[in-house]
Amino acid sequence: MRIMFVGDSMTIGSAGDFTWRYRMWKHLNATYGGPYAIVGPRTEVYDKHADAPVSHDYGDPAFPARARRHLAGWGEGWLHMAPLIGDAIRDHRADTLLISLGLIDLGFYTDAEQTAANARRFIAEARTANPGIHAVLLPVIHNIRAESDAPFAADCDRFNELLAKAVADLDSPASPLLLASRPAAYDIHRDTYDGTHPNASGERRIAGAFAEAMHQAWGVGGPYAP
Questions:
Q1: SS3 90
Q2: What is the C-alpha end-to-end distance of the chain, expressed in Å?
Q3: Which residue range is the domain that position 18 belongs to?
Q4: How far apart are CA 178 and CA 157, in angstroms?
Q5: Residue pair 85/6 in contact by the 8 Å Cβ criterion
Q6: Measured distance CA(23)–CA(44) in Å, rounded
């Protein structure tokens, strides 16, 4: 199994974060009995002072370089990742994608329908690169903006409906797609440090959503235990 994390600022993380990618790596080490690798073209976290993804200051310095790989970017969404995913899969021989995208698209770039169209394009590009690709997709989690911006909140909900439809339409035995459940009991006032980006408890809840989906549907790893 060759796993690639794909996401936006919630996935790349910023300097000092552990990241939910780290939590997932710990979980796989503890529960997955087979060989696996974490792959991708990037390893950095975002440096807010430099306003660029140039930091290697992870919360745990012992997080090994080989496990830090990803395809995630601060301010990048389905719109940005769809043109990149094919080459990333080919170059790094990924066979499993763990994807958390959509919030930045809806917040700055595209409406729900356009964002869903880019998600479908992403899946098509991924399958062109690897017809047997497996993917787990996380619905958009409301952030602090959704509490005061009703149209934005409605757009997030509409996109999640369209994402669920895309997964149902495009899932196939040859290239299975899973829609993860919203992280259990996720609360932006408790599980983020700024209303959007996960803190330690939020990282664990996001990792748990992916881990539970993979365990229940594919028998990968075990139940998530923080």
A1: helix
A2: 22
A3: 2-218
A4: 18
A5: yes
A6: 16
Local structure of residue 26 (DSSP, 8 states): H
Residue 226 is assigned to a structural domain of this protein: no
Model pLDDT, residue 184? 85
How is 121-163 classified by DSSP, letter by letter? HHHHHHHHH-TT-EEEEPPPPP-HHHHH-HHHHHHHHHHHHHH
* Helices 200-218 and 20-31, axial angle in degrees (round to 10): 40
Q: Would 225 be classed as within a structural domain?
A: no
Q: Which residues of the chain have pLDDT under 50?
A: none
pLDDT at residue 226, rounded to an integer: 82
Cα gap 155→173, rounded to integer Å: 31
- What residue has token string 């369209």? 162
> What span, in angstroms and rounded, lies between the C-alpha atoms of 52 and 146?
26
Query: What is d(CA 135, CA 177) in angstroms, rounded to the nearest whole number?
Result: 5
Q: Which residue is listed with tokens 């995208």? A: 101
Q: pTM score > 0.90 for this model?
A: yes
Residues facing 136 on adjacent strands = 98, 178
How far is CA 99 from its chain centroid? Answer: 3
User: Are the C-beta atoms of 91 and 136 separated by less than 8 Å?
Assistant: no
| CATH number of the domain enclosing 155 | 3.40.50.1110
Total count of domains within the chain: 1
